[in-house]
Specification:
Length: 254
């Protein structure tokens, strides 16, 4: 995958750490993770190495021994250091699907915006996640407000403008539980963050899935379901969403 929003892999990893470091503070969660797929790992795979070399916060720290599959379409893979827990898989992330589930975490930083068919992609990822597995999406929003005017930017290889509203729709439609999930979108920050869990509901046909269907499925945040009940569709300004640090963000407030 082409990464055009960062100058180098170290800068990209520094951005990832803003979320990884919050996850690391949850000891029970980290100790429960057995397998991770880094979707769009890049040639350096720094995020994958972080997962593979993660330790407990004990004194002294103990290795968590998380098994990591670093996935991308690059022909070369040159991580700055090797790890016995890390394997590289050359994989088309759009078509990746397998009958055997088992990934506790699907980590996807700065990659989802390049998916040509995002709905089918999310449905495929639902099938490879472990029961109650977690999907972390960190994706840029290409329509933003800069210097008191609208800014529309579309990097090469990107065909969609993702928003939290569209992400919630696609995730819930493809079987990901947004009601129990966590979301973050800061004013002036173009990045969208979504942490959701694999539900027991199968991905739906998006051609025949309405907002009302999703509201009744209980896969949506309460504020989203209330907005749909009142207006017939989801308005971003009605969303009140939690983040991993248990803070809440009202997106109607700038």
């Amino acid at each position: 995958m082409a990464h055009n929003l960062f100058r180098n892999s170290e800068e990209s990893h520094a951005h990832s750490r803003q979320t990884l470091d919050v996850l690391y503070e949850h000891d029970d969660f980290m100790e429960s993770v057995g397998r991770v797929a880094d979707l769009g790992c890049g040639s350096s795979a720094l995020d994958a190495l972080w997962w593979a070399e993660a330790t407990t916060r004990d004194d002294p720290p103990q290795p968590l021994d998380i098994q990591v599959a670093a996935m991308d379409q690059f022909e070369t893979f040159q991580p700055p250091r090797r790890s016995r827990n890390l394997s590289y898989v050359r994989q088309d992330l759009e078509t990746w699907c397998q009958t055997k589930r088992g990934f506790d975490v699907l980590w996807c930083h700065d990659t989802f915006q390049y998916m040509i068919n995002p709905l089918q992609c999310l449905a495929n990822w639902w099938h490879v996640a472990a029961e109650d597995g977690m999907l972390v999406l960190i994706v840029p929003q290409t329509t933003n407000w800069e210097f008191n005017q609208e800014a529309f930017d579309l990097p090469p290889g990107c065909y969609y403008n993702h928003t939290l509203v569209s992400l919630i729709y696609m995730l819930a439609t493809t079987g990901w539980d947004c009601g129990a999930g966590f979301f973050r979108k800061q004013p002036g920050d173009p990045w969208l963050h979504a942490v959701v869990y694999r539900s027991r509901q199968q991905p739906r046909d998006p051609k025949h899935t309405t907002w009302y269907d999703l509201a009744e499925s209980r896969l949506l945040p309460d504020s989203a379901a209330n907005s749909i009940t009142k207006y017939g569709y989801l308005r971003q300004r009605d969303l009140v969403l939690p983040w991993l640090d248990k803070s809440f963000r009202w997106l109607g407030k700038t």
